[in-house]
Design goal:
heterodimer, A: about 250 residues, 10 strands, B: Arc Repressor Mutant, subunit A, three-stranded antiparallel β-sheet, about 60% helix
Chain lengths: ~250, ~190
């Protein structure tokens, strides 16, 4: 995406006043969050607080009911699904708790997939994919299918796939949630090294304090609003109504 | 645990002098408080007195003269006994965080009852919830620092594991604080019951 000159000073990603309901259940109630280029941000909060919904809206997977999401200062949420889908493929990398690798494909083909979908030639796509598998220490598993790998290896392949297109931002939702603690540490270390070296921003949703500590900055989602101690994302929309309860509740969850 | 046990372990590799022992200690335990040279020296003296180590000789290598020490048989036995000994798993719970929460609730009870008005009436009421919130932020900041140390390019395994040791303990504190924050009202009732 080419940023216009006036937008060059804009943050990489900015969500403003997001509202989202799943049926009758409100998930986001005026959530705002600003992320700069190359920055790593942990999003923590109790389960059901809305942190995954925030990630889905900011990565363009879901469209908020109201509010806006900007990438390089330009509206992302109002784009038609086809354009958002293309942006997700080229500008974003996405990792979930369970890798979402295609079970029928080898690690190498899984990793090359975003490049192939973007029109790259097979040989080049596989070369780039192989280099990323190497980077995450799973080159030796290149020919294996997801079911033939350990959970930690599968998550490393998912990370390689998320970074293979050289995205501007990686969105990770509980990326270590299904791993034992040593595998989790190794996956997180590999992830922060990779985003740091490539200058990629990281939005990391987690309920785990040790995982959150891998990010430079932490924001907390409570009852669908974002509490950002740095003050950079603006005040939470419902701060005056829930301030006391929020102060009490932020101790609740790592 | 004492410094002499660590020095006995370092001396297992062969005779060594005080400065070298200090340097190797600090390298092996990167997140620990660095050993003061004076402490190394006085510990070595004590080990010689107790028969755990003896003076091997002195070397100057062109620089100042340095006394080298080696481990005795008795020193090796003492070390092996200590290594096999189980450390008592925290026999007393005297954690400052827990103590602060309970004392805050106790002093809050004085206020609520109007009793014990012994001055300081204008001081703000203790707020254990706000305290836990602030303590959590301080813990998280320290966890970010330790994580940055262990993910720095070229960090060796000693650095990673010593940071992980500290991170595990801070994480345990955080889990406890999260539970306590949710149960503060019930704890207040219990603590403040007449």
């Amino acid at each position: 995406m080419s940023a216009s000159p006036t937008a060059s000073a804009a943050p990489l990603l900015a969500a403003r006043g997001l509202h989202l309901s799943h049926g009758a259940t409100p998930a986001l109630r005026g959530a705002s969050l600003t992320v700069s280029a190359g920055e790593t941000v942990a999003v923590t909060g109790p389960s059901g607080s809305g942190k995954s919904s925030l990630l889905h809206c900011m990565s363009g997977i879901l469209r908020p009911d109201s509010g806006e999401v900007r990438l390089d200062g330009e509206r992302l949420d109002t784009l038609p699904e086809e354009r958002r889908s293309a942006l997700r493929r080229t500008e974003f990398g996405i990792v979930f708790q369970f890798g979402q690798l295609v079970p029928e494909l080898t690690a190498l083909d899984n990793t090359a997939l975003p490049l192939l979908l973007g029109g790259a030639r097979r040989k080049e796509a596989q070369e780039t994919a192989g280099a990323w598998l190497e980077r995450f220490g799973v080159r030796g598993q290149a020919g294996l299918r997801p079911g033939e790998m350990s959970g930690g290896q599968a998550q490393r392949v998912a990370l390689a796939r998320a970074l293979v297109t050289g995205p501007r931002a990686v969105f990770a939702d509980e990326p270590t949630g299904a791993l034992d603690s040593l595998a989790a540490e190794q996956v997180m270390t590999a992830l922060v090294h990779a985003v740091r070296e490539s200058g990629t921003a990281l939005l990391l949703v987690t309920h785990d304090a040790r995982t959150a500590a891998f990010a430079e900055r932490e924001v907390t989602v409570l009852d669908g609003t974002v509490h950002d101690p740095s003050g950079r994302s603006g005040p939470p929309a419902a701060a005056s109504a829930t301030g006391g309860a929020a102060a009490r509740r932020t101790g609740e969850d790592a | 645990m004492s410094t002499s046990h660590v020095l006995l372990g370092l001396l297992a590799a062969g005779p060594s002098h005080g400065y070298d022992l200090k340097r190797r200690h600090d390298e092996r335990f990167p997140q620990a408080r660095p050993l003061a040279y004076g402490q190394v020296y006085s510990t070595l003296q004590r080990m010689v007195r107790d028969g755990l180590a003896e003076v091997e000789g002195s070397e100057s290598d062109g620089g100042p003269e340095r006394t080298t020490y080696r481990r005795t048989e008795e020193g090796a036995r003492t070390l092996h006994r200590w290594l096999a000994e189980v450390a008592p798993p925290a026999p007393f719970v005297a954690n400052e965080i827990f103590t602060k929460v309970v004392v805050a609730l106790l002093s809050g009870a004085d206020r609520a009852g109007g009793a014990g008005r012994q001055g300081g009436d204008d001081a703000p009421a203790p707020d254990p919830a706000a305290y836990l919130h602030a303590q959590r932020a301080a813990h998280m900041a320290r966890m970010r620092e330790l994580t940055a140390v262990k993910t720095a390019p070229g960090a060796d395994l000693s650095t990673v594991l010593s940071a992980d040791y500290a991170l595990s303990h801070l994480d345990a504190d955080l889990r406890w604080m999260a539970d306590a924050a949710q149960r503060l009202d019930a704890l207040a009732q219990e603590v403040q019951a007449p």
